[in-house]
Amino acid sequence: MLKQTLILASSSPRRKELLEELQIPIVISSSNVDESFDPTLAPEEIVMYLARKKVEAVYSNDKESFILGADTVVCLDGVILGKPRTREEASQMLSQLSGKTHSVYTGVAIMANGICSTFYEKTDVLFWELTDEEIHDYLNTGEPFDKAGAYGIQGVGRILVKEIKGDYFTVVGLPISRTVRELKAKGFSMPH
Ligand SMILES: Cc1cn([C@H]2C[C@H](O)[C@@H](COP(=O)(O)OP(=O)(O)OP(=O)(O)O)O2)c(=O)[nH]c1=O
């Protein structure tokens, strides 16, 4: 019998909040995994691979609990956009996304009773045409830097978005409703 505690193998504050808002008791245990991946893999394979890697890193220290990990990437015309390292990179990503539809993939891994299973969700996001001034102003918010694709839909970045198709929470970094369903199916008891 596993402990009814969920270990979140992620340092993302968004993922933490999404779970806490549902009163799910969580403990954070993120470890610094190498997030490099084989670029020839499909985006859904990459996010599930990295989510699994995050979970497995924590599992080596705790085999008694449920462990949840996730990974998010943005994909534009077959090219993966991760987190920008510099202001220039962020500016470039935002100009690339301007006026176009990109896909956000979030992969989720759940470890329960020594078995790690994964799934992913994809949401398509259409950006408005952005002016240089809009991009400049958005960069000044500081928001783009810890986020895949250099924007946060849950923050000021919401004003860049014209339309979405799919689960909003996939874009934020954790498709919460499917995650809850998968956790329940594995025997995790939810507070609701
Ligand atoms: C597109 C988009 C991404 N993001 C975030 C979600 C993820 O936290 C981040 C992608 O990086 P990830 O590597 O998925 O996650 P992380 O580095 O924040 O945390 P950890 O590796 O410890 O699990 O981008 C938003 O918050 N809003 C958005 O609109």
From TrEMBL:
Annotated catalysed reactions: UTP + H2O = UMP + diphosphate + H(+); dTTP + H2O = dTMP + diphosphate + H(+)
Pfam families assigned: Maf
Cofactor(s) listed: a divalent metal cation
EC number, UniProt record: 3.6.1.9
Catalytic EC class: hydrolase
Native source organism of the sequence: Niallia hominis
Annotated function: Nucleoside triphosphate pyrophosphatase that hydrolyzes dTTP and UTP. May have a dual role in cell division arrest and in preventing the incorporation of modified nucleotides into cellular nucleic acids.
Annotated positions for site Important for substrate specificity: 14, 72, 154
The protein's name: dTTP/UTP pyrophosphatase
Keywords on record: Cytoplasm, Hydrolase, Nucleotide metabolism
InterPro entries attached to this UniProt entry: ITPase-like_fam (IPR029001), Maf-like (IPR003697)
Family from the record: Belongs to the Maf family. YhdE subfamily.
